[in-house]
Amino acid sequence: MNRPQHSIRYAFLVIAVSVLAGCATSTKLPTVETQAAAIPIEERRAGFDKFWNAINDNFYDPSIRGLDWPAVRAQYLPQIESAATPDAYYAVMSKFAAEVGDSHVYVRAPVETYDRLSDSVTGVGMSMRFIGKELVVSGIRKDGPAERAGLKRGMVIESIDAKAASIIYADALAKTPPNAHPAYFSRLVSRLTRPPVGTEVTIMVRNEQDAPKTIKVVSDTKSVEPPTKVRVERLPSNVALIRMNQVGFAPILSFRQTIIDQKDAAGIIIDLRGNPGGAVAGVLGVVDPFLDSTEEIARVKMRPMNPLLSVLSFGNTDTSSPLATGRLFEREYAGPLAVLVDENTASAAEMIAASLQDYVRAIVVGRPSCGCVTGLFGFTSLPGGGEFAVSRMQIFLTKRGSIERKGVKPDIEVPLTLADLQNSSNDRTLLAAETALLKGGNATPAKVSAIQ
Q1: What's this model's pTM, rounded to 2 decimal places?
Q2: Is 15 or 26 the better-scoring residue by pLDDT?
Q3: Cα–Cα distances in Å, from 77 out to 2, 43, 50, 80, 102?
Q4: pLDDT confidence tier of residue 114, bands split at 50, 70 and 90
Q5: C-alpha to C-alpha distances, 317 to 257, 281, 305, 402, nearest whole angstrom
Q6: How does strand 200-206 pair with strand 163-164?
Q7: Nearest residue to 34 (alpha-carbon basis) of 86, 80, 93, 84
Q8: Sheet (strand 393-397) strand order
Q9: What is the pLDDT of residues 280-311, one digit of tens each?
Q10: Residues 235, 240, 241, 244: what is their CA dihedral angle, to the nearest 10 degrees?
Q11: What is the pLDDT of residue 203?
Q12: Is the separation of the CB atoms in 421 and 154 below 8 Å?
């Protein structure tokens, strides 16, 4: 049996365009000094116009989601012209991108771009998020400035550089356009932990005894190994836990072998929490081993392609292509299956969770996912060392349509609490999935409020 030609052409097209996409090439480390230097106004205008035109010409929706696109340009150009410093320029560019309201139309600041290109992580070494209106430390980088200074997961942040958490919340809300994607607010907050190298940040926290404490940390940068894409652990219950923190072409064969190796497990849990996604075509390699028939799990739509890309895709000018399963591999595992998701499960990772849920193959456990399911082909450089991305692919899941801005709703929801962050050894989401699988692998939609 032959795989549908459109799927073959689509996969080739994704590879071809990934190679051709314009990418930022600068890997100069942003520092306090470099980020204080003004960007010439001509460069600021040119970068803005390049981004505006890229959205106008390539965004999958020619109507730009119903926006008066020339009017948006007129609104933001004066702000670009007055934003002399890199921080000010990238703040305006980010807000401009957020007007589109799409998860894959965004701007990376110079620090974020440097980290992507150099396999580094720059910042104070922690992540943070709001639980309600409380700002809390949600993650700590091992041996990073925050850990060395004594910061811990679950600490409540009272202020950063004398700015109260309530003001940080209000500022981020004020900088979020009405049309912005729901994830934009969180991105704004997270950027506060990633200043240029050498920046001193003063953080006031409440510790476990609820006592205030002031901690000073200095941003640094550290090279990291490219993320391990698949890691396997056999739990004491004989359930196999497979962690994936990226979706790509390379893991497809290794993932299949991983599933074969775990056939004797009492169940399999695929942990996609924090997985930002990756290659859309990589979704097939993860979903295929669990399905026993050909299924079109999604359809990808684009604006009409240019002549060069038409040649690279064997003359196919159809802007709608299916993603179908059941041809790459035979079904390798028919036992109980669960998928873990959270608000940082995005893009291709969400497609995996949704597809396995749609075909009643897995229960999904955790918190609603990002709702960040469109597609891009690469990044384009901006003055000052940053870059931008533009969505070119609109993705419709066969059984539920687009989940952009909607996300995947878990069958078993496990809300995040402050206690979860303070006691990382008690993973209630994992425990809920493990319990459900050992009870037979079936679950009705529910909310887990207390799992000891």
Answers
A1: 0.88
A2: 26
A3: 52, 13, 12, 5, 21
A4: very high
A5: 36, 19, 7, 22
A6: unpaired
A7: 86
A8: 320-324, 296-301, 393-397, 374-375
A9: 878 988 998 998 888 899 999 998 765 544 44
A10: 150
A11: 98
A12: yes
Q: Which two tokens stand for residue 424?
A: 């990382």
Q: How far apart are CA 397 and CA 449, in angstroms?
A: 30
Query: 383: number of CA atoms within 13 Å, CB side?
Result: 22
Q: Judge contact between 133 and 139, C-beta under 8 A.
A: no
Per-residue pLDDT band for 211 (boundaries 50, 70, 90) equals confident
**CA proximity to 281, closest of 17, 21, 57:** 17
CA distance 118 to 423: 33
**298 burial class (0-12, 13-18, 19+ CB within 10 angstroms)?**
buried
Q: What are the distances in angstroms from CA 178 to CA 82, 99, 182, 317, 422? A: 23, 8, 10, 36, 34
CA-nearest of 349, 151, 166 to 244 is 349
Place of tokens 């409440």: 206
Tokens of 406: 């909607």
The token pair at 109 is 């600041």
What is the separation, in whole angstroms, between the first and last Cα of the chain?
Answer: 50
The chain-wide mean pLDDT, for the chain, equals 87
Identify the bridge partners of residue 218 per DSSP, sorted by sequence position.
200
Q: Could you tell me whether strands 220-223 and 120-123 are parallel, antiparallel, or unpaired per DSSP bridges?
A: antiparallel
Domains defined along the chain, listed by start: 17-116 (3.30.750), 121-223 (2.30.42.10), 230-374+391-447 (3.90.226.10)
DSSP string, 304-333: PPPHHHHHHTTT---SEEEEE-SSSS----
- Calpha distance 122→194 (Å, rounded): 6
pLDDT 10s digits, 349-397: 999 999 999 999 999 999 999 999 999 989 999 999 999 999 999 999 9
Tokens 């926290």 identify what position? 205
How many residues are given for the chain? 452
Distance CA 124, CA 140 (A): 9
Would the CA dihedral through 210, 212, 215, 219 be positive or negative? Answer: positive
**Residue 311: how many other CB atoms lie within 10 Å:** 12
Largest Cα span, the chain: 67
- For residues 131-164, one letter each, b for 16 or more C-beta atoms within 10 angstroms of the residue's C-beta and e for the rest, the string is beeebbbbebbeebbbbebebbbbbbbbbbeeee
The span from the CA of 403 to the CA of 2, in Å, is 29
